[in-house]
Design goal:
Layout: E1 2-6, H1 12-19, H2 33-48, E2 59-66, E3 69-77, E4 88-98, E5 103-113, E6 120-127, H3 134-150, E7 158-162, H4 174-184, H5 188-194, H6 201-206, E8 212-213, H7 219-224, H8 233-242, E9 245-250, E10 257-262, H9 267-271, E11 273-276, E12 287-291, E13 299-302, E14 320-325
Parallel strand pairs: 6-7
Antiparallel strand pairs: 1-2, 1-13, 2-3, 3-6, 4-5, 4-9, 5-8, 7-10, 9-10, 11-14, 12-13, 12-14
Helix pairs in contact: 3-8
The structure holds arginine.
Arginine (ARG) binds near residues 25, 86, 88, 162 and 200.
Amino acid sequence: MYSLRPAKPSDITAILPLANEQGARHASLPKTTQSLRSFIQTSEDSFRTPKGLTAQSGNYFWVLTDQDQVVGTIAIEAFTGQKEPFYSYRRETLINASYRLKVKQSIPVLYQSHELAGYSQLHSITLASEHRNPRAIAFLIQGILLFIAEHASYFSDRLLFEFPGFKDERGESPLWNDLGQHFFQMSLKEACYHASIEDKALIAQLMPNQPLYENLLSNTTQSTLGEPQQDLADYYQAFISEGFRPSSHIDIFDGGPCLTCFTSSLWTKQESARTRLTGLPENHTDTIAMNTSKEHPLILLLPQHQPDFIQPLNLTSKEWIRWVTLNTEGMSEHHQGEGVL
Ligand SMILES: NC(=[NH2+])NCCC[C@H](N)C(=O)O
């Protein structure tokens, strides 16, 4: 049975192998015991934020468990770009035209941008390989959105997820090979590691910050900019089903789409309901249910027709829960890539 709860220091041994799995991206999840310890400390402080006080710098780190074993992770940074700028490329179109020569070209140009600062960002998604199935993927993403829906005042009115970008048959990013590599002189994976939440100054120091004409990049790069990594279709679908859409921004390293959504229009926000424990209808489909505690949240996946599965919430009949139907629409059971987003 799957559940989501805040990560604790005692989870570190179980998180380390997930964080260090060979992945194309490995964006922001810390990879050492020491850095995980301080990430978990920040997270514990964030969950504790007293009511009425919004934590602009909150970073909430969750583990997905199956029968009490840690099998995945996900995190929410409450507001991007608080301590350091938040980097992406904005794509704009320029028209270059000569009336006399009858040449008219519309050329997409990439501008370094900090516009996605102030969003709440989902990040650090990992799933152990045996759990890369639609139910776990949908639960991981929807569960966290249910928490955001319940505690909306601690988060931005806009959400962001930097989806991993297109990779070629060798698993390499055409944009990275055309661009970032020349400035960082290292692999995408190493650059992601260095530029993770802990040392972002590197992006400002090394990435070119002048506008870039896309037609100077290779044909493969041009035709795949803004495309999601192909073997992560179920994760992509989970975001699309919630109302996330590609914005005019792309990831500064691998060109993946920056998916954004207004918090108020999330499917999970609109479809979820609050009820007393006794008011929970018999679940004819898989259902996500959580207590409404900010400090000690617990989010459960109740398999259909199994109302007793709610017991771990340890609630009295008068307490509130928020619940929503699990949405796996449009997902299929194919290979789920590295599972490290
Ligand atoms: N694939 C990557 N790691 N890209 C770098 C993303 C950096 C991120 N937008 C930030 O400013 O924190």
